[in-house]
Design brief:
By secondary structure, the protein is α+β, with helices and mostly antiparallel strands. The protein contains seven helices and eight strands, in the order αβββββαβββααααα. Among the domains are: 129 residues, no CATH class; 85 residues. The radius of gyration is 62 Å and the shape is rod-shaped.
Length: 317
């Protein structure tokens, strides 16, 4: 039986170790050989929704993660506080200032003096998950617990969620519910009243519409009758004018003839005025014709004065 080669076995072992080391470096991204910044934050309120591995953000930029969450009680008064341990990844932060520096090269106390504070923030409204938000809040007082001297402590401040929860707990929810119920009852009663009034108003509107329709029909009938009367009157006027036109024409012709005779008479006045003149008979005849025409015009004028409607109805003989 052939013996195993120890050198070959050792080569396989060394190769496997090297491959494992390369895999660890590839998966860890070289973070095993980088210095990290560790810190602890003490929260006095509930951290429901915060889990190990939750993001640590600075103004929305992820710079680390939560590594541990613990619970502590004060033996004197049994007050509870929750230390949350976080780690800051230096690769996520770039320091500016001439020479190449890392965030771990800056004393942690300078960040605290600048106003570094931590608070819980809602990561997702659907799942209710929380994360840790870091920011500079120099106007917020720094309260230190100092329970873990081996870790840098970031002062905690109340989150907006805690403030909202406290305000919500102070609201008189039962009173608001009762008032809301009473308001809904009033609204329901108003709706019933409004429906009844709308029904009554609809009935009145229907009656008004019927009356208006009837009035419009009556008006159309009266208008038709009026138009018929006007048409009939117009026909009478046309007939009267047609009837009087020959009489007027005859009168005008008679007057014109008389005027012509008068013109002829005036032209021969010198001959007619002499006694025994041969044209005297003609003058007398012209004067008689003029008198007849004048009498006819006077009679026509008197008829019109006595009965002006004769211009429309015709002269009654």
């Amino acid at each position: 039986m052939k013996k195993a080669n120890p050198a070959l076995i050792g080569g396989f072992v060394v190769g496997a170790l090297l491959l494992g080391a390369v895999a660890v470096l590839a998966i860890g991204g070289g973070q095993l050989f980088q210095r990290k910044q560790y810190a602890v934050i003490y929260f006095s309120g509930s951290v429901t929704g915060l889990a190990i591995g939750a993001p640590v953000n600075f103004r929305g930029v992820r710079v680390g993660q939560v590594t541990d969450i613990r619970l502590q009680f004060d033996a004197s008064n049994l007050s509870a506080r929750i230390p949350v341990y976080i780690t800051i990844n230096p690769r996520k932060i770039r320091m500016l200032g001439g020479k190449k520096l890392s965030v771990v090269d800056v004393p942690f106390e300078k960040f605290i003096e600048k106003g570094m504070r931590a608070q819980l923030a809602i990561q997702s409204l659907v799942t209710g998950q929380l994360d840790v938000e870091l920011d500079f809040q120099p106007d917020t007082p720094a309260v230190f617990i100092g329970d873990d001297p081996d870790s840098n402590e970031i002062p905690a401040m109340r989150s907006d969620f805690d403030t909202f929860r406290d305000q919500l707990s102070q609201l008189p929810l039962r009173q608001i519910t009762d008032e809301l119920r009473e308001t809904m009852q009033v609204v329901r009663q108003l709706a019933v009243t409004a429906n009844s009034e709308l029904a009554s108003t609809a009935g009145s509107a229907r009656q008004t519409t019927d009356a208006l329709t009837k009035a419009v029909g009556q008006l159309q009938s009266d208008t038709a009758r009026t138009l018929a009367s006007v048409q009939k009157l117009s026909d009478h006027v046309d007939t009267a004018v047609t009837t009087l036109s020959p009489q007027l024409n005859q009168t005008l012709l008679t007057a014109q003839s008389a005027l012509k005779d008068a013109d002829a008479t005036l032209a021969h006045t010198s001959e007619l005025t002499a006694p025994g003149a041969p044209m005297r008979a003609d003058l007398e005849q012209a004067l008689r014709n003029l008198a007849i025409a004048s009498e006819a015009l006077r009679n026509f004028s008197e008829t019109i004065d006595r009965n002006p409607q004769s211009l429309i109805t015709g002269v009654q003989r």
